[in-house]
Specification:
heterodimer, A: mainly alpha, ABC transporter involved in vitamin B12 uptake, BtuC, two-stranded antiparallel ribbon, 2 strands, globular, B: mainly alpha, 16 helices
Chain lengths: 286, 332
């Protein structure tokens, strides 16, 4: 009984770290330009497919595909920013909300067209198997994915706080006009943040492809959950998104364990509604 | 003069709509018109809360589903007449909207949008697991004696056409009332600035909830209509994000915050999505939805204020000329 509980707790933390990485990409985009990228889940799906095809066509293991996914998704982020998001930056808010929905529907169905709706799985990744501690099992690919997510988050924080470009992003996030007056090219910062946000979800997709089913709609639930995580943590707050990611991972697995696995996502959304009711600005928002 | 011209145009449009079922060839165009009216009704409902009161809900499918399920379940389990079921579903949706709207009343902008998605997802997951209403298998409405009383017609789609049109007319009357009433002005004040509205003594929680409840009632009515029209429903065909998104798009394309905007939007968007589905979607290739996604993208970029807003701004720009001309004559 208690060992099962520990098992669920570990599973929750493991998926929570990956959630956090997905959500951090989203929160960076939100923080800098006040836009929710509703195509975020579909970016994740594309990255998983990139990893899958690198493996299937060229035998590149998902671990080695991480940089490929990151770079390609960074480029995709720049494209989506240039051709969709930047066009509505000065438009009405409703257009800002809706435009990425259009991109999302387009990408998800392009994937159906090109790759069919079949479920796929990378059959023999380099990292596989489990470590056993008594009856508690830790899946190695999940552990690597989680550790990797934490590392990437750390690297992002270092980049933002220690480099000139990173500081320009943070400055734009704090106050766009002041940043502009200080000589920051805020348009470039927008594009860069969108690219980095997409790149981060690209890394998360490569991690997930090591053990998760890959299909065109896979981004849907991950996307919706990451919106909740971002709002839960406070839009734009990276530390908030990380904490909220872990929290959501734990609530999902423990909620599924104590109540009904069919309701595990409903419990997450319910928790989200309760928290924003008490704290509308999110855990670490202001 | 302008008023009379408007009356003539309105009378012509109404007459055309009334005789249209006699002119349309075959059931498919009629089906497209019926779906257009139904989405227009959903859009009119959304427009009250989104367009006037500024709450961008992406969860209207939840109320659509609640309305559809309420009347269908009452009918299949207890033999309750669907017209009564429609009222029950509407009230139930409005009560649900109040229950969820109150905690969400502090949320704005994206926070509200995401909360509405989360709420609709909970409703969807719940209906997928709720044995009482058939869980994932859904409900099939038994065939009954066709007629207005039973809300079922088997031979022709024309009766559904007129009912959908009547529903839309009622929805437009509600919307018109909202646009011209005191409550409507409060809605718009709240949309412009919460703080300012509060300083003026407007209880924004109360008025935001009123808008949410009106929208929920209209969405539920559309849901009951849909269930009686299709005679089958399951969670994955009524309570899904794509429906919620289409409701928003219909309003946005036509022009959010105008009475006829959602109708114009539905008249453009629904035929396009129905026709692309028939023409391009037959092998489940996703091409129809790609076209649809690209369309949303283009609308947001090139026509974000909506077609109706664009047309009426044209009208307004032309309007000053005739009124300015007589003025000098009046002086001497």
């Amino acid at each position: 009984m208690s060992e099962q509980l520990i098992q669920q707790f570990i599973n929750g933390l493991l998926i929570g770290c990956v959630y956090a990485l997905i959500a951090i990409g989203l929160t960076l985009i939100w923080g800098v330009m006040n836009i929710v990228n509703f195509a975020h889940g579909d970016f994740l799906m594309l990255s998983m497919y990139i990893s899958f095809w690198s493996y299937t066509l060229w035998g590149i293991d998902p671990v080695l595909a991480i940089p490929i996914c990151a770079v390609l998704l960074f480029a995709l982020g720049l494209l989506v920013y240039k051709f969709a998001v930047s066009k509505v930056m000065n438009g009405p808010m409703l257009a800002q909300v809706v435009v990425t929905f259009g991109v999302s529907i387009f990408i998800a169905n392009a994937a159906v067209l090109v790759w069919t709706p079949d479920f796929r799985l990378i059959d023999k990744p380099l990292l596989a198997g489990t470590w056993n501690f008594g009856s508690v099992q830790v899946s190695i690919p999940k552990l690597v994915a989680s550790a990797g997510s934490v590392l990437v988050t750390g690297a992002l924080l270092l980049f933002l706080n220690r480099t000139r470009t990173g500081k320009a992003i943070l400055a734009t996030e704090m106050n766009r006009d002041s940043a502009l007056l200080m000589g920051v090219n805020t348009d470039r910062v927008n594009a860069l943040s969108f690219g980095i946000g997409a790149g981060l979800v690209g890394v998360a997709g490569a991690f997930l492809s090591m053990y998760y089913y890959i299909y065109p709609q896979v981004g849907g639930m991950f996307g919706t959950i990451s919106f909740c995580i971002v709002a839960l943590g406070g839009f734009g707050s990276i530390s908030g998104a990380f904490i909220a990611g872990l929290l959501v991972g734990l609530v999902q697995t423990l909620g599924g364990y104590f109540f009904d696995p069919a309701y595990k996502y409903a419990i997450v959304f319910g928790l989200y509604l309760v928290i924003v009711w008490i704290r509308p600005q999110g855990l670490r928002g202001w | 003069m302008a008023k009379r011209a408007r009356f003539v145009v309105a009378a012509a449009v109404v007459t055309l709509l009334l005789v249209l079922p006699l002119l349309l060839p075959g059931p498919v165009p009629l089906h497209i018109m019926i779906m257009t009216f139904n989405f227009a009704l959903l859009g009119v409902g959304w427009n009250i809360m989104g367009g006037y009161a500024g709450m961008f809900s992406f969860g209207q499918a939840a109320f659509f589903g609640i309305g559809a399920y309420a009347s269908s379940w009452l009918l299949t389990a207890h033999g309750v007449n669907p017209w009564l079921g429609l009222l029950v579903g509407g009230v139930l949706a409005a009560v649900t909207a109040a229950a969820i709207g109150w905690p969400c009343s502090k949320l704005r902008g994206h926070y509200f949008a995401i909360a509405s998605i989360a709420f609709a997802e909970i409703v969807r997951i719940h209906f997928n697991n709720w044995k009482l209403v058939g869980a994932a298998e859904g409900l099939t409405i038994p065939m009954a004696e066709p007629g207005l009383l039973n809300f079922q017609f088997h031979g022709s789609k024309a009766p559904y056409y007129y009912i959908a049109l009547a529903f839309l007319a009622v929805g437009l009357m509600v919307s018109r009332w909202v646009a011209t009433s005191r409550a409507g002005f409060y809605f718009r004040a709240i949309k412009e600035s919460h703080e300012l509205a509060m300083v003026l003594g407007i209880s924004f929680v109360r008025y935001r909830m009123l808008a949410t409840m009106l929208a929920a009632f209209l969405s539920a009515a559309a849901g009951t209509f849909y269930a009686q029209y299709i005679l089958y429903l399951d969670p994955e065909s009524v309570i899904i994000l794509p429906i919620s998104v289409q409701v928003v798009l219909v309003s946005m394309l036509g022009g959010a915050g105008t009475i006829f905007g959602p109708v114009v939007g539905a008249a453009i968007l629904v035929p396009i999505s129905e026709i692309t589905r028939v023409e391009l979607g037959h092998r489940g290739t996703g091409v129809d939805m790609m076209v649809y996604g690209a369309l949303i993208w283009l609308i947001s970029v090139y026509q974000p204020r909506g077609v109706w807003g664009f047309l009426s701004s044209l009208g307004r720009r032309k309007a000053p000329a005739p009124t300015a001309a007589p003025a000098p004559e009046a002086r001497p």
